[in-house]
Amino acid sequence: MIFASDLDRTLLYSKASAARDCEDMIVMEMLEQQPISYMTKEALAQLQQLHSEMLFIPVTTRTVEQYERISFLQASGIAPKYAVTSNGGNIIIDGKIDREWKRHIAQKMQTTCITIMDVRKKFQEISGDWILKERTADELFFYCVIDRSKLPQEDVETFCSWAKEQGWESSLQGRKLYFVPSAVNKYEPIAYIQTLENEPQYMAAGDSQLDYCLLAQATHAFVPAHGELADNPHPFLETTQRGAAAAYEILQRVRALSPMKVAFS
């Protein structure tokens, strides 16, 4: 059985999103010699056990470089064979980027959406002091760090509707606003890996609209009780816990449903 999970705000948490004191949590990521991502001790222990029982696949909107910063996973004995990064634009297999998948995505983008250059050009029409930073991710999509108190709601909604007609999806996650081609999604890489591994089923977890397609095809799908999906009606299994405590609950429930656990219960 595969467990495909989003990372940030699902398994990993910043100080701002943890909803608890981080001093007793395990540091999972450092940037410029500062800790920036954490897991609870209990959640990490569950993930270590799950990794020995199932095929754990991180599925993240992080770029390849941002994913590789999470070096503490391997230090904790968790070395995923597969990782899906760049919102599905890249698959890492045994530490190396799958070039065949990368070519597939490039070809698909050419036929299903307008270019990132054209989308960013149109986006400039609504840009303003509400945008603090704008970044391109692995030349596949772009995102902005924003001041939500200044967000021009109507203008952004109009732009998102236009972008969707051009083959681009949008997602607001905390202080980050993402614009991603529909061709670059989190489900299709998992379907590809299922074929490679001959695994017909998978379980999944995620907190944002960009996770929806991944969750929708899963045998069991979990959503933490915070974030973009929890704020709207959804058909998935929702945790009772919020913040970093939700990660432990998700992992515990996934392990309880794993075929290995069921077989020996």
Automatic annotation (TrEMBL):
Cited SUPFAM superfamilies: HAD-like (SSF56784)
UniProt domain Sucrose phosphatase-like: residue ranges: 2-221
One function term, GO molecular function aspect: catalytic activity
Protein name (database record): Sucrose phosphatase-like domain-containing protein
Species the sequence originates in: Fictibacillus macauensis ZFHKF-1
